[in-house]
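Entry 14. Two folds queued back to back today. First construct below, sequence then structure tokens.
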Amino acid sequence: MDYFEVRDLHVAIEGKEILRGASLSVKQGEVHAIMGPNGSGKSTLAFVMLGHPKYAVTKGEVLLRGKNVLEMKPEERAKAGMFLSFQYPFEISGLKFSKFLFEAYKARFPQEKTNVIQFQKLLNEKISQLQMNEEFAKRELNVGFSGGEKKRSEILQMLVLKPELAILDETDSGLDIDSLKLVSSAVNHMRSPNFSAIVITHYNRILKHLQPDIVHVMVDGRIVESGSRELAEKIEEKGYAKLYNVAEAKS
């Protein structure tokens, strides 16, 4: 049995079908990439995996270690080790970043009984790893953050919460080359038999740093091709329209 599976997933929003039988499987320790043109359903897939309420699953399963997570609440999925890095992270005024992350850490690892001092040490270590200032954690969650700071905030959460399965939804968008390398380095640092990731991206540049095990192409709500990282290079060279007749798929 694969560690994580999406089986024949059909999803609609306000009566419009977005996913039309998406399927993929991830083994423990693997990093997968999902590429595809705008509107192909990549972000929808990410949101459904973590339980966004506005999407209606009409058919299919999402299995984590053989258990259908569609039957779990979003917070239960997070506690089970799933993590989503948002393409557009939310801002929450009045909530200090470190407080938010401490509460999330306690919920994720209730058995550890970590106190504030112990957590602050852990947090500072991860902040240093991302070459950020410790003052960063004292700010309100994502309020006034630049685009790059918001993306580093997401990766910092991932490093602290140590998910077993991370879904990164266009974390690379808007990043300069130095931030891109740091983000990629953080993901690579976590690679182990106990960590798997699904990276959603438009660009081959982050994949050059991540070296994913498998690249998938999503068109019109389905995975239409899977292969090695050379598949991303082929897409970069020829484009989606030429390879997959995207215009016809969207009609």
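Second construct, same run, same settings:
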Amino acid sequence: MNQLALLSAVAACALAAAAASPVLAQQAPKPPKPLMRDFIGINAHTVQFKPELYAPICRLVRDYHPFDWDIDGSTAKQRPFPIAQHIDWNDESGRFRSRHAPVNWHELYASWQKAGFEIDACVQFGNGATPEKWTNIDADAYRYGKAFAEYFGPSGANKLVTSVEIGNEPAGSKEFQKDDYAGYKRIFTAMARGVRDGDPKLTILTATAEAPRDGKTDGWSLPLALFEDSGVLYDVINIHKYALIRGWPTFERVNPEDPKLDYKGVLQPSIDWRDKHAPGKEVWITEFGFDASTKQPDPKGQWKDWKDSTDLEQAQWIVRSFLFFSELDLARAYLYWFNDNDTPSFHASSGVTRFLEPKPSYWAMGHLYRSLGDYRFSRTVEKTDGRAWVFEYVHETDPSQLVWVAWSPTRGGQEATQTLNLPGKVVNAERMPTAGNENVAVTLEPEADGSAEVKLTESPLYVWLKR
């Protein structure tokens, strides 16, 4: 064998070994970052969601799809899709409010699709789905998963849902006993097998899970080790993570860059777990968000110590959270919540609309979506705590088109003067809006070398560039 042939043979063997070796396969280049229009999502709930109202702010929606609505009082008595049962609806305080007619899932989800949304359905287990209440977990969960996938999945005639979550937060749910991981795991395994057989193209997510820190999860998330032997049964690791600096009784949240929070330090262990145990699978954040109410809690009630953000802070922190997440190895992020009734308690004022009227966060999120929808995260330009964060985004099809987003990573109204060494000609510049008619234009006058002195505030500055 001559030297050239020998080198070719060695190269072929190396490629074959890389393909066969899990260790080497993990070192393969990662796929490109998602476009921001394929990254930004929102949480909603069935009949309350008004798709036309929220279409201007994102195209991804996550629905809480109640399992109880699809069974007739028993896991063995599944109702035929697409008709669900009657719904007794409660407000955030738990009081009876109204009764809705049976939901037609086809009509509901088709109306969301018509408005431009891609749907992730979170099958949420309630009172009828605790492990001890199943008639036959293995048979019933499999049957439900298969029927769901066949009716809603992308391979069927209806093509209504692109992804499904098997459970929401079973680790912290009152419907499951504390640490009853075995009960959930049995439901998950049977239902995931049914989904796979019903439509292998339907993306499957775990319930909320995370890699434990100091041996513990946050109390709402399952330990990711529960899924270590289930790789063929899911496609996406599902994370819920709020910027909570304190738990009960304040549930105080802060800006995502706050060093005391160490937001990346909380998220990265789960991404690292994926890299080690489930390479190639995506990680989604399906819940994050910030409360903002105009009311004060009852000083004698259970929420008397609860703390929220201002409307302005909520708008700033939502936008900056999406930017923060886009730098990490995450494929999607869904904001919690779409609408609220201005209730001053935990998770009850997290909407971007209030009584279906836009809050400042609605306009800020819409501006983010329109500004960066055709762009993907490219690189971190600068990170100086307490002063300046600057990220670069590159256009989907034209790498000469860039957007730089810069802000002060602080709270409390801090500002900073910063020099940006811009890599191209300034095409446009805008500041994050908080109202529908707000003038967002910012004038930049770069020097001959491309440097420009700008005022950074806690509302991000967007600079469009042509290099």
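Quick look at the second one. The domain at 378-466 is CATH 2.60.40.1180 (Immunoglobulin-like). Confidence is low (pLDDT under 50) at residues 1-26, 92-97.
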